[in-house]
Amino acid sequence: MESLAPNTEVRLAVAQCFRTLTTSTDTKDIITTLQTLHSYLEEGPESRTTSVQRAEFRRAHFTRTLQFLVSNIQADWLRGLTATQRTELWDGLFLKGPPEQALLVLMEGIGELRASTNLDHLVSITEKFLQSGRLAELLWSYCLETGPSDSPQLRETLLGRIVALPDLAANRLHPKNKTLFLPQQYHPLLATNMLTALERTCQALKDGTDCSLTFVAQTLGKVCIQGHSGLVLAVMAPRLSACTRSDMVWQRVCWKLLENVPQRCMESVLTGLVQAVNGPDALGRIIGNLVLTNKKAQFVITHKLLLLQYKYETQVLRIVLGYLAADRNRRPLLIQVLRSVSQAWANPSAVKHTPLEQQLYVSKALLLSVSLLRDSELQELRSELLQCMLGGMQSHLDSSVVRIRRMGMVVGECLSSCMDINNTKLKFEYNHDEESQELLSLMTPVASDELEAEPANRVDCPPETGETTPSTQNVSSQNKSNTEPDSDLDSDDELTPYDMSGDQEIMEAPPPRYLRDCLEALISSEDAVRVELSLRAAEGLVRKNVFATREISVQLTKVLLHMEDKYSINSFLSLRQATMVALTVIDSVPVTRYLTTEFYSLNYSLRQRLDILEVLALAAQELSKPINEKRNPSMGISASMDLTLYPGDNPVHWQQVVEKRIQSKTKRLGKGATQPPAEATPNRYAPVAGHFFFPLLSNYDKPQVTFDLLGGDHLVLGRLIHTLGLFMHLAINAPIAAQMGCALLDFVWAVRYHVDQMVRRGVLFAVCSVFLSMPSQNLLVDLSDQLFETRTWLADVAEGDPDADCRNLAVQSLVVLDKSLKKQLQDQQTLSMEP
Amino acid sequence: MSRPAPSPIYTLRGAGGPLNTLHFSCHGRDTPLLFSGSGKGAIHMWNLNSRRAQKIVEGHSGSSVIWVSTLQATDTLISQGRDMQVCLWDLSEGRSALMDSVWTGSVGFCQPSMLETSPGTRLLAFAGQQTEEPDSGPGPLLLAGYEDGSLLLWDVTQRSKLSQAKAHPEPVMCLTFDTNCLRGISGSSEKKLSPWMLDRQNNLQLQECVTLVNPGVSQLCIRGDGKLLASAGWDHRVRVFGWKKLRPLAVLQYHTDMVLSVAFSDHQDPRQRLLAAGSKDQRISLWSIYNEGGDTS
């Protein structure tokens, strides 16, 4: 009976208070009552209440009291209080008692109240609650496990409220949201409060008190899994890294904290952490050997971050692999990682089917992990690495994408130099660009001190650039200082030079004046000067004398096609190409017949076949352009020079060309008649388009001994399809376009899922140009049965193709197709409505 | 983007022979004049306002005229022909009278050089096988280029050799000297222009060569303000360089045969300054380049 007394006593007192508050109109009574309630929360010797009473109030009546206050928030007695009294007595109650209860009541109140001054009042109390560090108090109370033994549901709700406070506030307050509740402000605040709780934990551990980190770990996990790991860990990671450097207790606390993170949140915490720490050592100090004890962590670190995801920067790779390499116990994991990464790198199917960015990422991981190996480990793994290198190199070099080939070469060089096979190294010739430089630089390990020393700079600029920038500035300033004394004397600079490209060497011998002389010189002459002069003069002669050209066009084309650069003539390839283009333009039908036949015949090199395609494409382009009044022969050469000699080798350029064409076309569709009508000129391409197009469609599936279009020669196949697409595109408005479109769509259907992305790009380009060039009524009538399948396929590609270009092209095609169909359907509607 | 190559503002035709030499006389006259000496022995006096030949002087008995010049402040013309004569002409009041002639005995192509120390006192240097250029100094100094490719600096009063430099492996075809900055440049039959400095001890110091696209230079000329250098090339082109750094600025393409002579005009207004080029194709082309901003200095 005696033990129950304080409980009932407190209950009665609280009930009495509530009654007074509801009924009384006297301000003095109200103040006294609120002070009574306050007295249950005040610690210290002068308190009017006993500790048992206080504990009972905190346990059973605090939430009730607060809820009562919130529900009576519009009561008259509250208005009667002065502002100071209200802040002290009313607001104070929320800020003094057990913080978890206060937070829950506040959030509930904010959730229930409509927009009013009362809501503003609660919001300002919440702000005060956060600013006065009550969150740290809350977390700390859970660390000490002094809080009430709560149910899992309650704890889950509390976690939810803490983590989702910005969302709840934003949902309720809309534009009147406080800056403190914005994620950018709140999450760092939460992080600091967690750090405070951790710091107190450390202190308590040193003093010999037991603590539990479960609640903090749960909070951390929940914040991270909700996608705020960047904000929170940006605050926490540097601090933890600094604290753990010298303090063993801090290290233990961190390890414990991460062990206690719930399994399902582990991944988001770890990925956030590896991005936020500034070096492998810091990661090691913070998470310890978590990777050995926690299966999930192991999976994330050794597999997911390296092989499944590829969005992270190189620094993250460095940290992860450096972390694995740093400790004796974790070292076997590094070996395991190296094995799986090298397998992934060498996998021929991966080379074909994964996005380029991922391959680059895996290559980086491979090089980094190899660079971390010790000599003994290298010896042990040598045979495996060698196998990986040979297989992987082969599949990389087989690729038709330049970047993949180069990646293979760089990695091969690095691996071979590491393994030291009989002192021989692989050495390739490739153009050094940023990417290859970066890969090569991965083999030289960065000293970890260096990384740690400048944690502030690390994020915005890697140390290398930090060094080079000032040095280049120095150089430039030196240059400046060198030139400055001269500059006042020197007036050359104010004179801008004219174009001096016409200043060429003068040939001794006169150029040939007749096309037949050219032909003879090209066939039989052994004189380098004569051959060069003939080649240089040929294009102009071809264009000048059309009748002479017609007589020998095929013969000259044959000679040029087989011509080799015996005398290393300057710009031989472009001269030869320009002449062949001129021949095709002047005498289209016989020359195209010859070239298209030769394309499929025996005994040509791939280069020659590609030449044929390029010549045809350029000629078709020239034919489709309106004739200029005065055609400058030198313009012809320079114009064809624009379309570089090897468009196939330059994916960026190629892509730009396609993009430009598509863009220009899409615009034209949209604008329609708003463009001023161009002066009408006969289209020279339309009558001969079929001669360019159809012969190339035949024979593609008949493999020759030397040429298998559907087999290994997919480089040519890609170019062929792209060229066909170009013919199709240029044939817009030509009567034959409809037949061409049907044939082309049939043709590419067989190869639409080709393994080589260059071929797929070509196919998509061709499809796109079919939709652009075919009249929309034909599109519906002639292709009606294929359209549905094509759409499904395009949607599939747009979603799932590993190559970004292919995806873009597929989306473009879909857009163009939809526009065309919509236009057609609308036209039909208007037609059917008219009669 | 560089500007397209310039084209001539007008051309003068009808000289009837290759144009070996050009000389402007625009300073202090009503009508700017251009004198040209042709390979057929005629000296044309072109009026640059009407763009017609105002007068033709035939004085070297059909032999090629290799040099013409005027004396300051008088209507006096001096010319050298391959008939081994240097002739002095009076052109005042529409006359064209032979005043004097000197027999040189030289069968070479070397152009003489004239120094007017004061009105009425002139020094003319002509020689056997040399190209010459005077230089003012303590005593008259004379620069001469020789067929062995070397340059010699002579002190005329002492009659002694002051300095020597081997500028070219081939004969020196032409040279010019800027008395303001004591720098000169010489051309030869090869692909190089060779600039050189004259230091305070009157030593010739060769500087880094400028390489041309095609070999052969027949004449070099520095514009009066010391900003531009023009070269008459055997490759039918006139090249224009910035004189200070010898930066190539323009290539003037018009002629269809060797350019034999270039000259900058001595207009008082810098904006009217012209560049004339005479070629073996019997035409004189006139160009107006870099005249816009050049008037300040």
3D architecture notes:
The complex is a heterodimer of chains A (835) and B (297). Chain A contains 40 helices and no strands. Chain A has helices at residues 4-23, 27-39, 51-71, 76-80, 83-96, 99-112, 117-131, 134-144, 152-173, 183-206, 214-244, 248-259, 263-276, 280-287, 290-293, 295-308, 314-326, 331-346, 348-353, 356-372, 375-398, 402-419, 434-441, 448-453, 455-458, 463-489, 515-524, 528-544, 546-562, 572-586, 588-599, 606-624, 633-642, 651-671, 689-697, 714-730, 737-749, 757-773, 776-800, 804-833. In chain A, helix 20 runs parallel beside helix 22 (402-419) and helix 22 (402-419) packs parallel to helix 23. The longest helix of chain A has 31 residues, at 214-244. Residues 449-490, 629-651 and 667-675 of chain A have low confidence and may be disordered. By secondary structure, chain B is mainly β. Chain B has no helices and 27 strands. In chain B, strands 16, 17, 18, 19 and 20 form a five-stranded antiparallel sheet that branches. The radius of gyration of chain B is 18 Å and the shape is globular. The chains are: A mainly alpha (835), B mainly beta (297). Chain A binds chain B through residues 489-492, 494-500, 502-506, and chain B through 2-6, 213-214, 227-228, 235-237, 239, 242-245, 247-251, 253, 289-290, 293, 297.
